[in-house]
Design brief:
The complex is a heterodimer of chains A (about 80) and B (about 325).
Chain A lengths: L2 E6 L4 H16 L4 E6 L2 H5 L8 E4 L2 E5 L5 H8 L1
Parallel strand pairs in A: 1-2
Antiparallel strand pairs in A: 1-3, 3-4
Helix pairs in contact in A: 1-3
Chain B lengths: L2 H15 L6 H33 L2 H10 L5 H12 L7 H10 L4 H13 L2 H35 L9 H8 L14 H36 L4 H6 L6 H9 L6 H13 L4 H13 L2 H7 L5 H25 L1
Helix pairs in contact in B: 1-2, 2-7, 2-9, 4-6, 4-7, 5-6, 6-7, 6-13, 7-12, 7-13, 7-15, 9-12, 11-13, 12-13, 13-15
The chains are: A alpha+beta (about 80), B mainly alpha (about 325).
Chain lengths: ~80, ~325
């Protein structure tokens, strides 16, 4: 089943960096997933996170407040 | 501590490049090389330390602590301290703000955090340490924390809850649901590479501003006469502090580049209090932050918030000019 990946953030450099890492991992490993950028604060607050950027995979918050490494994202997606 | 670096700069500029120590060109480039290297080393070291703190900081526990305990006014002070030691980038300030308010922390206490968080940050500390030494850095940090404490306390007395955006008020009323969150516990050793990488990323992102700032500073250092500013700005005229604050507001993007320039201003006769007020206004009153806050509060509340912070910065500027 296709995974839904959401990256939550308000447009800061860390948020951009996280999107970059996630995109690269998905493309490189041909993972069946859609990537959604969520930068609306009202949407973000639905997850009640306090630190961004946040990585949400299939509605589960997996990483918050930091930019993960590619290996880490790959491990989370498998 | 940095003697070896001065020796290296002397050797590089005076011996290898061959510009004399008593020429303006030689002294400007010596200043530039020495300061750039010193600041970069300090910046990396401090950002790295803060990265470790940030990785382990129990933000949820802090929230519960501030909420649960009756702290007799000390909660403003604690909240301000936590704002100083947690290095969040400005884009986290809105989710944090909402998280705090939603968790039942009074608005004023939340504001204490929000004021100090950008004011006392790793880049400012590293640059202050490198350019002004440990005493001025301590003064900067302590006054930043006090400013957050007092500013938050004043804001807390003003009954500002009605001025939040409607959707935020609604969010506060609804009971907070537990977030679905699973992150594996990882050892320090596993985290180290990513903390190092993040520290390096931050240093890289401010590098250009630091270099430009030091380049301007180095030029001024050698070409602007001693006590030049003293004639205009050094005599304790009352308007220098507000003027510094007004000039500082649009400077946000270049906060890291500002300190090296301020240092030269101080060396040429501007009082340190005026310089600290300028620095605080640069990082504490930023237009990008106001734009973000616009989403959670009314313009009126932003104006009150910025007004109180400006007032506190002005007071501390005057105070330091008298005390130092």
């Amino acid at each position: 089943m296709s995974k839904v990946i959401k990256v939550l953030g308000t447009g800061c450099p860390k948020y951009q960096a996280m999107i970059g890492v996630v995109k690269e991992v998905v493309l490189k490993n041909k993972i069946d997933a859609t990537i959604e950028k969520v930068d609306d604060i009202m949407e973000i607050m639905k997850y009640s996170v306090m630190t961004t950027p946040t990585l949400v995979i299939d509605e589960v918050i997996t990483i918050k407040g930091r930019v993960p490494s590619k290996d880490e994202v790959l491990a989370l997606l498998n | 501590m940095f003697n070896w670096l001065q020796n290296f700069s002397d050797w590089l500029i005076y011996e290898v490049v061959g510009w004399g120590a008593n020429t303006k060109l030689g002294s400007a480039f010596n200043f530039f090389v020495y300061d750039t290297l010193k600041i970069l080393i300090l910046l990396f070291f401090i950002v790295f330390l803060m990265g470790i703190v940030n990785g382990y900081f129990p933000i949820e526990k802090l929230k519960n602590y501030l909420n649960r305990k009756k702290l007799y006014g000390l909660e403003y002070f604690f909240s301000s301290i936590f704002g100083a030691i947690t290095p969040f980038c400005s884009c986290s300030s809105v989710p944090l703000f909402i998280g705090f308010v939603q968790g039942g922390i009074p608005l004023g206490v939340t504001f204490s955090f929000l004021i100090t968080s950008p004011l006392v940050n790793e880049a400012a500390i590293a640059l202050f340490l490198g350019m002004f030494g440990i005493k001025a850095t301590l003064i900067y940090v302590i006054s930043g924390v006090l400013l957050g404490t007092i500013g938050g306390w004043i804001l807390g007395k003003l009954n500002l809850q009605p001025l939040l955006s409607d959707w935020v008020k609604k969010l506060i009323d609804t009971k907070k649901h537990q977030e679905i969150y699973k992150e594996k516990e990882r050892t320090f050793y596993q985290r180290l590479p990513e903390i190092t990488r993040a520290a390096w990323d931050i240093v890289k992102s401010v590098l250009i501003y630091v270099i430009i700032g030091i380049a301007i500073g180095a030029t001024m250092h050698s070409y602007v006469p001693e006590n030049f500013f003293n004639q205009y700005l050094g005599g304790g005229q009352w308007w220098t502090v507000p003027l510094a604050v007004i000039f500082a507001v649009p400077m946000y993007a270049n906060a890291a580049g500002i300190v090296p320039i301020i240092q030269v201003f101080v060396a040429k006769g501007v009082p340190l209090g005026t310089a600290i007020a300028f620095m605080m206004a640069t990082v504490g009153l930023s237009i990008p932050e106001a734009t973000l806050l616009k989403k959670v509060m009314s313009l009126k509340l932003i104006a009150i918030f910025f007004g109180v912070v400006t007032f506190a910065i002005l007071i501390s500027g005057y105070l330091f000019n008298i005390l130092l």
